[in-house]
Prior knowledge:
Strand content: 25-35%
Helix content: 25-40%
Distance between the termini: 51 Å
CATH architecture of the largest domain: 3-Layer(aba) Sandwich
Amino acid sequence: xxxxxxxxxxxxxxxxxxxxxxxxxxxxxxxxxxxxxxxxxxxxxxxxxxxxxxxxxxxxxxxxxxxxxxxxxxxxxxxxxxxxxxxxxxxxxxxxxxxxxxxxxxxxxxxxxxxxxxxxxxxxxxxxxxxxxxxxxxxxxxxxxxxxxxxxxxxxxxxxxxxxxxxxxxxxxxxxxxxxxxxxxxxxxxxxxxxxxxxxxxxxxxxxxxxxxxxxxxxxxxxxxxxxxxxxxxxxxxxxxxxxxxxxxxxxxxxxxxxxxx
Length: 262
């Protein structure tokens, strides 16, 4: 029989495991550490207090901080195929007659690109990247106006907020930089957070998050919504089953791109 690990050794092994896998189940840690469920839970509580992980139902996810906003073109290179499919699926949720807010970001851009050209809808967006490529899309769209943000190819500031305050939407579809049970949905800049919060405030209907699996467990600088404020998450098949279960326990409907295969 191997010698029991002391707490520091157990916690180091948990961190090593999470560094590789990003997510872990309590049952797997019990086998890995050869210890009881109660001991694993105490170790996870200790590591959570240190900000190393976030406990979830049945396990934990590595806490990943995003401190700086990447340039738009850099972000566009991350998971491009998943983002296209997420954009296609999220766009399919838009129905004729909808008034929709859509924010900036590479996944939100894919949502705009996949809206049917014959849709009888109206879109309000601060997303300069998508609008530059759309030309005449066939549906009505408005730019929010505001100060140009070069890193994100977006618009923000007082003009954007004031103009959004003139409109009510019945859906909002948002790309985010992080999503977490504990910290909700987050973005890296205050300018984008202000715009997105105003969009949510002026939406009298569903709040839909479009984010690939790599955003799970990531915490950026500014919260734009608690986890309870989300109605749907549109994501790819890479999101773990345990994460889906955690979100569904919060009454969030999780839609994955697997449905596009049929």
